[in-house]
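E1-E2 ATPase-domain-containing protein
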Amino acid sequence: MSPPPPSRTAFRQPRDLVASKVIARASLHVPLPGEQRPYVAPLGVFYALWLYIRIFRFEEYLGSPEFAWLSLFLIVAVNILFLLVGQWSVAAGARLTCRKEPDPYRAETIVIIPTAHNGSGALCKLERTPVVGSSRPQLYFFFQKKKYIFDDESGVFKKLDFPSHHGYTMTEYRVSKGLATEKEIKAATEKYGLNKFDIPIPSFQELFKEHIVAPFFIFQMFCVALWFLDEMWYYSLFTLFMLFVFESTVVFQRLKNLQEFRSMSIKPYPINVYRLEKWSIIQTDELLPGDIVSIVRQKDDSPVPADLIVLDGSCIANEAMLSGESTPQLKESVQTREPTDIFKLSSDKNNVLFGGTKVLQVTPPAKGQRLVAPDGGAIASVLRTGFTTQQGKLVRTIIYSTERITANNLESLLFILFLVFFAVIASWYVWVEGTKNEDRKRSKVLLDCILIITSVVPAELPMELSLAVNNSLIALVRAFIYCTEPFRIPF
């Protein structure tokens, strides 16, 4: 029987739970049972209280049907707002649906809030894998296609360490034998996973759900409901229909643009690899950091499958896809470097073939060298795979960049507050004067007051923005410009 998990007092969360420049803060959580969430049991008490007052204390507390329905409307609105806030903000959603847990081995999820312009936050599931010879599992999670592993000594989640991070000397790369044992291959596979470069494409339902819970869309739906109550049937139905049509066209256009990025993914192809001290052929999606491979120019111009350091021979590569430079770059081997030089990826790019680039010409190693590939290719060692490559970083920047951008400035806020101030005064005047006329229904007066306040932001604005964004996307596509963030266009 395995020993019990460590006690809660054994762990103290460090100030920075995740060691990453792109993550502003993180916290560990355990999901709350459904009945303990604020929008279930606590608000249920308010519903029961409203029902009790409506039946037994109507004249004492409410006095009129209008205020009775208004109070119920406010309770329902707060309930819906709780649900929507969890969709709008990851941090708020975690507070509503989870409780904090200081012990990482008891926690089930981790809330990640990135720094500005590095995408949106996420509630990530903590994964566990057993560790041989240890009572504790290995904790890790994925955020934006990057794997973070928990380090027991520091109590911090850290990014995967690749061979390029170890500061090896050029001599160590020269004498490398690749993955020489089955144990090394198994350990590398468990740690890094396969060299898959799949760009995720969300479904239409997922994107459409994201659009219809946006604050603008919710505001539009609220206005449509008010127009229904005001007996503007045709206008309300037409607006509702057009709103869904425009949002659907934006979603379809966004899906089409994301499909274009699928062309950036690398399809697996056979490659010669030096494993278990012999040459063999595997698929490129099976490559692991530390593998030694043979690089040749592919007949179908398939790109380099991973970030590689050239060990012997040389290559000429086209890096236009990454840097925009149309001039081919010469990639020399570490044989031309001083043996004691320490490899640094940032300064030794002339020795590195980046994933996604295309090899134009290859010079094989001289005869008599330690490693000579059967296909006569240049010898290289795998540094990084998958989404951690240079191309992977570029794609992650495109996919996980900020999805919505708004004009959050003081002038806009003050202008809206200025309009709201006068709208409240006008609605109060309408209420006071309208209730003086006893022939006029108070519910109608109350509806007019709400319509006055909502008119501060034109109800047609979201639909007009959707139409403008959709037309802009079509114009950009005609110019062969593809946009994954249409929300930026109005700003």
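thats it. Residues 1-10 have pLDDT under 50 and may be disordered. The chain has 14 helices and 18 strands. bye
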